[in-house]
UniProtKB/TrEMBL annotation:
Residues 41-157 form the Pyridoxamine 5'-phosphate oxidase N-terminal domain. This is Pyridoxamine 5'-phosphate oxidase. SUPFAM superfamilies: FMN-binding split barrel. Pfam families: PNPOx_N. PANTHER family: FAD-BINDING, PUTATIVE (AFU_ORTHOLOGUE AFUA_6G07600)-RELATED.
Length: 211
């Protein structure tokens, strides 16, 4: 018996089919869109400590978390955002994608708020000394700064956050209910990485290498 998710007979493969099922967006869904960082949208970005950066590369799409103190993404002007690249794992998945394809999008989250903010644009990677110095934290410079030319901005309604109860304290996931990073690495590395040792060292290493 074929699994339901392998049955393609009911797949929607064109925009016309999608519109026939979903209909047209309401007026509010269209009117909320701006082609720049509108003054009413700017506070969302300046208050957000967390965003998801989405890019597209030769191997397909990627989504990467970005976070720091509120305002870590700077609104340079109505059409420009500046996103410093902090220390990470050096995979540079997002940056490699931007070099290949400058199209980017950002999803900003605000703790405790239902609405999120979506920003679309085109990015370029800068190592201008002035930009690096502008975004130094604890006397540490970012490796680079992603300069985003904004082409579209709009807020996303709060239904997804409401359904997920994302910010509700009693919905926090117990640490022991999912595998630890070390447990994952030990299995996927065929035990060349000691999972217990990795987990023991991880909190201190992360604290000392935030910037």
């Amino acid at each position: 018996m074929t699994a339901l998710w392998h049955d393609t007979a009911h797949d929607l493969c064109d925009v016309e089919a999608l519109r026939a099922l979903y209909g047209l967006p309401n007026e509010a869904s269209v009117k909320k869109e701006a082609d720049h960082v509108h003054p009413l949208y700017r506070p969302f970005i300046e208050a957000s400590p967390f965003a998801v950066l989405c890019t597209v590369g030769p191997d397909g799409p990627d989504a990467s978390p970005r976070g720091d103190a509120p305002g870590f993404v700077e609104v340079a002007d109505a059409h420009t955002l500046l996103l410093p690249d902090r220390r990470g794992n050096n995979r540079i998945d997002s940056l490699r994608n931007v070099v290949h394809d400058p199209r980017v999008s950002l999803l900003f989250l605000l703790p405790g708020h239902r609405e999120t903010l979506r920003v679309l644009g085109r990015g370029r990677i800068s190592t201008h000394p002035g930009l690096l110095a502008r975004h130094a934290v604890q006397d540490k410079l970012p490796r680079s700064v992603l300069v985003v030319h904004v082409t579209k901005v709009f807020f996303q309604c709060g239904r997804a956050v409401m359904r997920s109860q994302l910010w509700e304290p009693d919905r926090q996931v117990v640490r022991e209910s999912v595998p630890t990073p070390g447990q994952v690495l030990e299995v996927l590395s065929d035990a060349s990485i000691d999972g217990a040792a990795y987990d023991a060292a991880l909190p201190k290493r992360q604290r000392e290498t935030l910037y």
